[in-house]
């Protein structure tokens, strides 16, 4: 098997198994009769048996709720039991001394004596049945492989401002958000982007040995789920009206021949490009399918003919000798695309017109890498700058205006192993993040390429995806083959007032998301603040972490102020005048 084939095979999807989130330790030895129903299995991904390939078919969409019912004896009751005092069904037995002393008591009535002894035996049996279980909760920083026998994974719903899950019939290795209209990602406030419910479009490509599709999905009625388990907050959220509505998923599918390695959507357009396993790069115009979902109505879709010529998808395919994974659209130049393959070649594609209905590819590729090109990124500010990473351990930046295609203008010796992914910071164009096969990821300042700005060895398996938050200079998200998605903020310093968990939790680590099997990729929404979609073998998670508690703090502050005002006594005007008269100097 060739090296290129090994590279492609190691990144394919595997069979999915259900997993769950966070940690709850339970002493199973003390409680051998505990039922399985007491263990909360949060994530349950089921294959959609009713999947239809017809236009507008709906798939299973789940919102995340925490149904945990723990029936343990509390500590106060436990102490009463150990002291010999236990009350149940409004009947109490007290142990006034040793059993020997009780037997020596003079009781005139023998039947009364037997009745008291029977109660004491009954009390003793009840004490033996009731046992206090010590349950401890703490942040879990490992993977499911690190769990002990008496540990299970659980999650706190309040850790997420929003968390929903979606399943398709076939798993997807890659996905991306689709935005059909211009938006301003430089808006520092993002106030209009925080209103619920959300309505988003996602494109994804399947990985299957049987049938493969391009899925264009519309996920609507995405409400806040943070207080789903707290009845005190459910009706008080002004930002989320009608939050009892169930989320909806509408789908358009386009059947293709081969599995999809990578898919990317051009900004502000339903144009998408995707790599397939047979080595083809295809550019597809999904405008007709996007319009169907944009005007989505089950009744209208049911009455439409199945083979409507207006719904046809126009494509342009370019063949390559081997497959690849690297793919990116230019954020500066509409209609410009770059692809990188496992044989080290980088091609540039351009639209021939502003209608984007015809495309051309450069005749000669860039060949300055010594290994497979794993990922590439266009500069967010320079039209002709392109960065790429490779299995040769380097990051290279090239100026597309330079005629020499065998040499890059900047070389960064990034890692001692394969560099799998990179991301160019949209707020600070000097910063590039890279993730490697050894689980390490680094941040580079291109002005000082000899030394990494930041290096973090936290994940236990290869890095599979990395992306800067679009509107934050210091926030970076990473996914790994250890099935963890982590969010980092490099502007954070250690707070002495916060509980210290030791070196186990780095200061810059803000959030850990788990619960997916064979996690492959994350994408930030370019418009909605802090919204992330992650794809894995067992489906999609779309969520917003509760990193910023400003809204909750403001609400608590407002409630406290209202409570203080209610305690102020009312003063009659006559009493006030009398008081002022006494204080008068006259």
Automatic annotation (TrEMBL):
WD repeat residues: 412-454, 456-498
Transmembrane helix in keyword set: no
Domain Histone-binding protein RBBP4-like N-terminal residues, every copy: 150-223
Keyword Ribonucleoprotein included in the entry's annotation: no
GO CC term, one of those recorded: nucleolus
Highest taxon in the source lineage: Eukaryota
Compositional bias ranges of the Basic and acidic residues kind: 1-15
Stretches for region Disordered: 1-123
Assigned keywords, A-Z: Repeat, WD repeat
Amino acid composition bias (Acidic residues), ranges on this chain: 51-73, 87-109
GO biological process: ribosome biogenesis
PANTHER family for this protein: GLUTAMATE-RICH WD REPEAT-CONTAINING PROTEIN 1
Name the record gives this protein: Histone-binding protein RBBP4 or subunit C of Caf1 complex protein
């Amino acid at each position: 098997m060739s090296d290129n084939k090994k590279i492609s095979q190691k990144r394919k999807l595997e069979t999915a198994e259900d997993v769950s989130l966070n940690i709850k330790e339970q002493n199973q030895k003390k409680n051998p009769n505990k039922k399985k129903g007491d263990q909360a299995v949060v994530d349950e991904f089921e294959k959609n048996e009713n999947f239809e390939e017809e236009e507008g078919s709906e798939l299973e969409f789940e919102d995340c709720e925490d149904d945990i019912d723990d029936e343990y004896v509390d500590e106060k009751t436990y102490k009463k039991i150990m002291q010999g005092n236990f009350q149940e069904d409004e009947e109490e037995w007290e142990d006034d001394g040793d059993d020997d002393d009780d037997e020596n008591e003079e009781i005139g009535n023998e039947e009364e004596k037997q009745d008291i002894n029977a109660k004491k035996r009954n009390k003793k049996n009840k004490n033996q049945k009731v046992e206090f279980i010590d349950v401890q909760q703490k942040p879990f920083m490992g993977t499911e492989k690190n769990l002990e026998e008496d540990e299970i994974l659980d999650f706190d719903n309040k850790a997420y401002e929003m968390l929903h899950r979606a399943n398709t019939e076939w798993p997807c290795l890659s996905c991306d958000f689709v935005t059909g209209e211009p938006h301003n990602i430089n808006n520092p406030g993002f106030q209009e982007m925080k209103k619920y419910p959300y309505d988003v479009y996602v494109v994804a490509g399947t990985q299957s040995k049987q049938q493969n599709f391009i899925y264009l999905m519309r996920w609507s009625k995405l409400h806040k789920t943070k207080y789903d388990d707290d009845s005190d907050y459910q009706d008080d959220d002004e930002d989320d009206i009608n939050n009892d509505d169930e989320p909806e998923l509408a789908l358009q599918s386009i059947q293709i021949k081969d599995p999809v390695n990578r898919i990317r959507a051009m900004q502000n357009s339903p144009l998408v490009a995707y790599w397939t396993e047979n080595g083809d790069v295809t550019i597809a115009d999904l405008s007709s399918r996007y319009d169907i979902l944009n005007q989505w109505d089950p009744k209208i879709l049911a009455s439409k003919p199945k083979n409507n010529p207006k719904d046809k998808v126009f494509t342009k395919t370019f063949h390559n000798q081997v497959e690849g994974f690297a793919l990116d659209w230019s954020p500066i130049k509409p209609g410009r695309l770059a692809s990188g393959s496992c044989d080290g070649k980088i091609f540039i594609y351009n639209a021939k017109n502003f209608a984007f209905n015809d495309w051309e590819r450069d005749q000669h590729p860039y060949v300055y890498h010594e290994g497979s090109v794993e990922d590439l990124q266009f500069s967010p500010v320079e039209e002709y700058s392109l960065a790429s990473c490779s299995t040769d351990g380097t990051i290279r930046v090239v100026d597309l205006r330079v005629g020499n295609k065998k040499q890059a203008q900047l070389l960064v010796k990034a890692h001692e192993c394969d560099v799998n992914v990179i991301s160019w910071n949209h707020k600070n164009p000097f910063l590039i993040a890279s993730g490697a096969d050894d689980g390490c990821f680094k941040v580079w300042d291109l002005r000082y390429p000899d030394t990494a700005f930041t290096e973090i060895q936290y994940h236990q398996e290869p890095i599979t995806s990395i992306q800067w938050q679009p509107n934050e200079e210091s926030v970076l998200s990473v996914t790994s083959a250890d099935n963890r998605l982590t969010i980092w903020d490099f502007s954070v310093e250690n707070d002495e007032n916060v509980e210290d968990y030791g070196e186990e939790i780095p200061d810059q680590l803000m959030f850990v998301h788990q619960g997916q099997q064979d996690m492959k990729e994350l994408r930030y929404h370019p418009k909605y603040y802090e919204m992330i979609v992650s794809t894995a073998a067992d489906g999609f998670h779309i969520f917003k972490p509760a990193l910023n508690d400003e809204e909750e703090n403001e609400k608590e502050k407002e409630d406290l102020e209202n409570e203080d005002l209610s305690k102020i006594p009312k003063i009659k005007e006559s009493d006030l005048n009398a008081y002022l008269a006494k204080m008068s100097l006259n």
